[in-house]
Amino acid sequence: MMSELTFYTNPMSRGRIIRWMLEEVGVPYTTEILGFGEQMKTSAYRAINPMGKVPAIKHGDTVVTECAAICAYLADAFPGADLAPPLKHRGLYYRWLFFAAGPLEMAVTMKAMGFEISLEKSRMAGCGAYADVMKTLEHAVSENPYVAGEHFTAADVYVASHISWGLQFGTIEKRQHFVDYLGKMSERPAYKRAHQIDEEATKQLQAAS
Known about the structure:
It is a single chain. By secondary structure, this protein is an alpha+beta fold. It has two domains: 5-82, Glutaredoxin; 87-189, Glutathione S-transferase Yfyf (Class Pi), Chain A, domain 2, CATH 1.20.1050.10. 51% of the residues lie in helices and 8% in strands. It contains eight helices and four strands, in the order βαβαββαααααα. It has helices at residues 15-25, 43-46, 67-77, 91-112, 130-142, 154-169, 176-185, 189-208; strands at residues 5-9, 30-33, 56-59, 62-65. It has a four-stranded mixed beta sheet, with helices on one face. It starts with a strand and ends with a helix.
C-alpha cells in the first residue's frame, strides 16, 4: 500500500508513540503538527478525529485514531516491516498490546490523579488492582526477549512507551525489569530518530510560543 500517509500530532503528546512506530515502519509520511486547544477542535480536524485529540493518521482514504489501533494498523498495512507476528502466533501480541491500552492505561491514569481502588471494588474496574497491573506488566516484559516472544513488534512500541512515561512521571513503579526492558527498546535506531524529531519539534513550538 503506497497511498499517501499523513500523521497528525503534537510532540508533547501520545503522538510520540506513533512517531516511533512510523520510524520503525520506515515509509515516507507527512507530519501535521497541531497546537492544543483551538487547532485540534476545528471542524476540519474533527472530521479526522471527532474527539479533537492527537494522534491520528490518514492513509489514503483510511483514518485511524487511538494509539494502539494505529500501531496495529500500521503493522498490518506495511507487513514488510515485520512488526506483527503471523496470525496463528498473535496471542501474546494482541494480549499485551491491548493490556497496555486497557488495564495499564487506566491504572496509571488513576494513580496519576490520586485515585485508589479499594480491594472491595477492584472487580468493578476493568484494570483491577494497581498492584496486579504492575505484576502483570513485569511478567510481560520479562517472560520473553520481547513482549510477543522472540521478535520485536508493534506491541513493544506501545508497551515501552507506556513504561517510559510511567517511569518518568512516577505512575509506574521503578522495577529493574522495567528499567532493563526500556533500556533495550530505547537503543533501537527508530526510537532514537523519533525522539530526536519530536525533541526538535518541541523546541520549535516552545520558541514560537
